[in-house]
């Protein structure tokens, strides 16, 4: 995994709202066989880092552990020609915070106190991404 002290690029103020709002982010990873995979995900942005969550063992989890570099895109739903693209390393994989994080994301996106779409004993993992390269449009 890349160094947790990786350079974190600043998010332009002009597009920061796309990371602060509860919008859907597209996560692009490379699977272990080298093929690309893109998945819509919940996320949150805090202190310059982007945080994602999934169940341990899912395709996203396996892909990130095999190649901890990702690309992320958020499109403004009011103007599809306005978007932010972020590329960077996953600098932390945290299973201890996984369950609390998915509950936070459920609250952020739905207002629910807890995430109830999967069994309560399902192991979750939180990924911390350091933005390295940022492209914006619109």
Question: What do you see in this structure?
Answer:
The model has no long low-confidence stretch (mean pLDDT 95). The protein has 138 residues and is an alpha+beta fold. It has helices at 16-20, 59-66, 98-110; strands at residues 25-30, 36-41, 44-46, 49-55, 69-76, 79-94, 124-129, 133-137. Strand 1 (25-30) and strand 2 form a beta hairpin.
Number of helices: 3
Overall mean pLDDT stands at 95
* Count of beta strands: 8
**Dominant shape:** globular
How many independent structural domains?
A: 1
| H-E string | HEEEEHEEHEE
CATH class: Mainly Beta
- Name the CATH homologous superfamily: Electron Transport, Fmn-binding Protein, Chain A
Helix content: 10-25%
Strand content: 35-45%
Low-confidence stretches: none
Please give the structural blueprint:
Blueprint: H1 16-20, E1 25-30, E2 36-41, E3 44-46, E4 49-55, H2 59-66, E5 69-76, E6 79-94, H3 98-110, E7 124-129, E8 133-137
Antiparallel strand pairs: 1-2, 1-5, 3-4, 4-7, 5-6, 6-7, 6-8
What keywords describe this structure?
globular; Pnp Oxidase, Chain A; single chain; 3 helices; 138 residues; 19% helix; 8-stranded antiparallel sheet; alpha+beta; 8 strands
Summarize the structure.
The protein has 138 residues and is α+β, with helices and mostly antiparallel strands.
């Amino acid at each position: 995994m890349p160094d947790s002290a990786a350079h974190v690029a600043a998010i332009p103020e002009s597009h920061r709202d796309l990371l602060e709002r509860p919008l859907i982010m597209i996560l692009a990873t490379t699977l272990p066989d080298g093929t690309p995979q893109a998945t819509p995900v919940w996320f949150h942005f805090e202190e310059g880092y982007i945080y994602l969550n999934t169940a341990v063992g899912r395709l996203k989890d396996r892909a990130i552990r095999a190649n901890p570099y990702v690309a992320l895109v958020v499109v403004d739903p009011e103007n599809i020609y306005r978007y932010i693209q972020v590329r960077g390393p996953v600098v932390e994989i945290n299973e201890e915070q996984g369950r609390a994080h998915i509950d936070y994301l459920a609250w952020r996106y739905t207002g629910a106190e807890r995430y109830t779409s999967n069994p309560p004993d399902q192991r979750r993992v939180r990924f911390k991404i350091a933005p390295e390269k940022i492209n914006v449009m619109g």
